[in-house]
Amino acid sequence: MKEQVVEVLKNGGIAVVPTDTIYGLVGQALNQQTIERIYKTRERNPGKPCIVLIASLDDLLKFNVRISVEQEKFLKQYWPGKVSVVLPVLDPQFEYLSRGTKTLAFRIPDHPELLELLTQTGPLVAPSANKEGESASKTIEEARAVFGDNVDAYVDGGVLDSLPSTLVTFENDKLVVLRQGAVEIEL
Question: In which element (H, E) is residue 169 found?
Answer without folding.
Answer: strand 166-171
